[in-house]
Write a structure and sequence with these properties.
Number of strands: 17
Protein name: Putative hydrolase
Order of helices and strands: HEEHEEEHEHHHEHEEEHEEEHEEHEHEH
Helix content: 25-40%
CATH topology of the largest domain: Aminopeptidase
Strand content: 15-25%
Number of helices: 12
EC number: 3.-.-.-
InterPro entries: Amidase_Cbmase (IPR010158), Bact_exopeptidase_dim_dom (IPR036264), Peptidase_M20 (IPR002933), Peptidase_M20_dimer (IPR011650)
Number of domains: 2
Radius of gyration: 23 Å
Cofactor: Mn(2+); Zn(2+)
Largest sheet: 9 strands, mixed
CATH class of the largest domain: Alpha Beta
Subunit structure: Homodimer.
Shape: globular
CATH superfamily of the largest domain: Zn peptidases
Structural class: alpha+beta
């Protein structure tokens, strides 16, 4: 059986934390100087572990095992959200690397390839590294990609990093038996339940909408309330109606979010003539999403009968849930029961992950460890060393079992 080395796991994670350290977290946007340095350091660690590793033409890293037997693929991402946590992404990279090292050190004929997928956090676009690895990212997609904060083009960023002109590496479905990804939960279900390991059943679908309201811009002091067509108030009333209706029709893990509200013109003495909201639904059950979608359109239609403004709901995108492989879930269940008896549970992932793209071509699995306080995407994000070490052993055991199956 593979025996992970706790000190090695923790040392690697804490070293990665120094690349862009910010308070107790990190600030490591994709292709920032510290992100580039973290990628090069990771390549060095892979090579020290006996893997053949290079950064490709979009910033992905693939470390290939020399093992002659069956090969599992595992990994995650390195970059962070702005001024955010130190484990979101790197935990999965180091778990994959440690599983590769521990299985090799056990004398097994099987091995683990380690993949680091670029820009999962979306600084330049949506899952560009995963899409490139799965060979569904076009060159024109890269041409159009820009950093959402700085405006730098991805082409310029790749040139600055020294990656421009390199070939992009794609998945080899004949080589890999499956894909495992580890991650912090980014919620408090495990912590509140007293559990140590989450075995992910599915990664939720995300449906994105734009809600627009057209009213009449006018003077805030001279326009009486009876004749106003206030787009902002109409939007707020619709959002309140959504929040009242959805608990009646949603699933137990459904979530909905108004991510941004914009008023036009947005002046303190001007009645807004236009209003816009970016709205999002998440669930792992397509039927629940369809039900919520229908309700959203019905609520908008009802509002148009009573409001003086014109309201419109446009669905901008609708992904499908990614189901995790049952056999790999069972391998995680068994490994968790061995190291943490009775302290594991199956659960969906409410966040998107690289594994959802891997699952399109090969069997995929995800494992969660607890997030302290359920915090993520913030510099206070954390997981105890004890839980990190436990998770690393469960992860390596599960991969070895899956390779032997």
């Amino acid at each position: 059986m593979p025996a992970i080395k706790p000190d090695r796991v923790l040392a690697d994670l804490y070293k990665l934390r120094t690349f862009g350290e910010y308070k107790t977290g990190v600030h490591r946007p994709t292709f920032s100087d510290v992100d580039i340095a973290a990628r090069e350091w990771t390549v060095d660690r892979m090579r020290e572990a006996g893997l053949t590793a290079e950064v490709d033409g979009i910033g992905n890293i693939l470390g290939r095992s020399p093992a002659k037997g069956r090969i599992m693929l595992s990994g995650s991402h390195l970059e962070s959200q702005n001024h955010a946590g130190w484990l979101d992404g790197p935990l999965g990279v180091i778990y994959a690397l440690e599983a590769s090292r521990a299985i090799a050190e056990s004398g097994s004929a099987n091995g683990v390839d380690v993949v680091v997928l670029c820009d999962e956090e979306g600084h330049f676009g949506s899952f560009l590294g995963s899409r490139s690895f799965m060979d569904i990212l076009k060159e024109e997609d890269i041409d159009h990609a820009r950093d959402r904060t700085t405006g730098e083009t991805m082409r310029d960023a790749l040139k600055r990093a020294g990656y421009a002109g390199r070939p992009r590496v794609h998945i080899d479905t004949k080589r890999h038996s499956g894909f495992f990804e580890a991650h912090i939960e980014q919620g408090d279900t495990l912590e509140q339940s007293g559990f140590k390991i989450g075995v992910v059943t599915a990664i939720v679908a995300i449906w994105q909408y734009k809600i627009t309201v057209t009213g009449e811009q006018n003077h805030a002091g001279t326009t009486g309330m009876a004749r106003r067509r206030d787009a902002g108030l109409a939007l707020v009333r619709l959002l309140a109606a959504i929040d009242k209706k959805f608990p009646e029709i949603a699933g137990p893990r459904s979530v909905w979010t108004t991510g941004r509200i914009t008023l036009d013109p947005g002046g303190p003495s001007v009645i807004p003539g236009g209003a816009e909201a970016l709205f999002q639904l998440r669930d792992a059950d397509p039927k629940v999403l369809e039900r919520m979608d229908v309700a959203l359109q019905e609520l908008c239609a009802a509002a148009n009968k009573t409001e003086r403004c014109v309201l419109k709901v446009d669905r901008r995108s609708a992904s499908t849930p990614a189901l995790m492989n049952e056999g790999l879930q069972k391998a995680l269940d068994a490994a968790a029961e061995k190291s943490a008896p009775g302290k594991h549970m199956r659960m969906p992932s409410g966040a998107g992950h690289d594994a959802q793209y891997m699952a399109r071509e090969i069997p995929a699995a995800m494992m969660f460890v607890p997030s302290i306080g359920g915090i993520s995407h913030h510099w206070t994000e954390n997981t105890s060393d004890e839980d990190i070490v436990l998770g690393a052993q469960v992860f390596a055991d599960a991969i070895e079992a899956a390779l032997k199956a």
